[in-house]
Amino acid sequence: MDTAAPARPVDVAAPPLLDLDARLAAVDAEMTVRLELAGLALDVDTAHPSRPLDLVDVVTGPVPLPEPEEAPYGTPAAATLQRAARRIRTGGWCQGVTVATDGTRCLYGAVHAEATSTAAEADALDVLLDAIRRNLPGASSIPDANDRHMTDQAQAVRLLGVAAALAHARGL
Question: What is the pLDDT of residues 6-33, one digit of tens each?
Answer without folding.
Answer: 666 666 666 678 788 888 898 899 999 9
